[in-house]
Write a structure and sequence with these properties.
411 residues, alpha/beta, Spore Coat Polysaccharide Biosynthesis Protein SpsA, Chain A, 2 domains, seven-stranded mixed beta sheet, three-stranded antiparallel beta sheet, 52% helix
Length: 411
């Protein structure tokens, strides 16, 4: 980065020696414009970065445990399950320990031979005081296996408030209260982005840098300025709203059910909101390939569903403003290493402040994980722009319209 900036400056110096005075004046003017534009870009992106962190600190800081309201409505929790994830016993067991007076649990699995089935049945047997059942079957409504798995759970729900929650969400005791507390007039859906926790190796720490201080941060910033997007990790629905749009099958309009949910809710004239203090997803050990596939899958789905919002993502992260700062520093004769170190300290120090304020996992080497994430972001964006295929839990899928998933042996 430093050498590139110096090379650019040397290029302009050579030009200044060989061209006439009038042309040199024009070149100087253009150089001034470029310096000003680069400085403005670096300043604006850094201010947006800091603003989003302030918003996320306010929205994501821990809250006191909420007690259920005296008139708390009964709630159905639909949990689609597939395969055995890290900490899956902890996350599924947390569904049975909620401090809520009236709720039922419906576990959904596509195939009876799925290895998660014995664990689910054991948890149901161990908690007979909580109404819970396991439904088996696959209702094909589109190419999304998770949505297909959830259809039977939605149809079997006994209550008008329905939560659809992934199997790897760790639910606190006041999980339902916090979701309901976020509901306000004009709301059509409450969601929560995943917050990576319990990283057991470097690649899991990298995934935390993606999930927490990058993706969740920008989601909360967007939600706070009135542009909330659904996140499929946790979704609280009021049955009448989704039924007014055609029921759960309306989410088959997009391959990603959360993208479809966003459009369905907005089509009803309602808004999507995020719950404050989002919920943890324990990670354990991760492989780099797992982190890469997850991020590129999400990028391809975002590109397919919200292309105009996807394109500016190439400018997110620290890489673009750092390059702009390097150019300005080289052009003005500032000490380049000091400028870039100061920038990195501000950028990643602010992210660490967010992790501390939100009580998220924050490894000592976090700045390195944050920097690696930002170096990978352009490659993730390019894969999202150019790619159409991905694999999710053993299902080969494509964002091309009308494609159906092809089952494979891996998970």
């Amino acid at each position: 980065m430093v050498n590139a900036a110096r090379h650019c400056l040397d290029h302009w110096t050579i030009i200044a020696k060989v061209i006439p005075l009038s042309s040199r004046a024009a070149s100087f003017a253009w150089m001034t414009i470029l310096i000003f534009a680069a400085a403005a870009f670096c300043g604006v992106t850094t201010l947006l970065h800091l603003a989003s962190i302030v918003v996320a600190i306010v929205r994501c800081r821990p809250r006191p445990t909420l007690a259920p309201a005296p008139d708390a409505p009964p709630v159905t929790i639909v949990r689609p399950v597939c395969g055995v994830d890290n900490f899956v016993e902890d996350t599924l067991a947390s569904t049975f320990t909620l401090d809520y007076p009236s709720y039922e649990i419906i576990f959904c699995v596509a195939q009876s031979r799925d290895p998660i089935v014995p664990l689910v049945r054991a948890l149901i047997a161990a908690h007979p005081h909580v109404p819970a059942r396991l439904l088996v079957g696959d209702d094909r409504v589109n190419g999304n296996p998770k949505l297909n798995n959830c259809v039977k759970g939605w149809n079997a729900a006994a209550h008008d408030w329905i939560v659809i929650a992934d199997s790897n969400v760790l639910m606190p005791s006041d999980y339902i209260q916090r979701l309901l507390a976020a509901w306000e007039p004009g709301t059509g859906l409450i969601c929560a982005p995943p917050i990576g926790s319990r990283p057991a190796n470097a690649w899991a720490a990298l995934e935390c840098a993606f999930l927490n201080s990058y993706q969740a941060r920008w989601q909360y910033y967007s939600d706070t300025i009135g542009n909330g997007f659904a996140q499929g990790k946790t979704m609280l629905w009021r049955r009448q709203d989704l039924e007014a749009a055609g029921g759960i099958r309306a989410l088959a309009a997009e391959l990603a059910e959360d993208a479809a949910a966003t459009k369905v809710v907005r089509g009803l004239g309602l808004e999507v909101h995020l719950v404050d203090a989002p919920f943890a997803q324990p990670l354990g050990k991760r492989r780099l390939g797992e982190v890469w596939r997850r991020q590129t899958r999400w990028a391809r789905l975002r590109h397919a569903s919200f292309p105009r919002l996807f394109y500016p993502e190439i400018l997110s992260g620290a890489l673009a403003p750092a390059l702009a700062l390097a150019f300005v520093a080289a052009a003005l004769g500032w000490p380049l290493p000091e400028a870039l170190v100061g920038f990195a300290a501000l950028w990643y120090g602010a992210e660490m402040a967010l992790a501390c304020a939100a009580d998220w996992d924050r490894p000592a080497l976090y700045p390195l994980y944050g920097a690696l994430r930002d170096l990978l972001l352009p490659a993730v964006w390019l894969c999202g722009l150019l790619g159409t295929d991905f694999v999710w839990r053993g299902n080969a899928m494509s964002i091309i319209e009308d494609d159906e998933p092809v089952l494979t042996d891996g998970r």
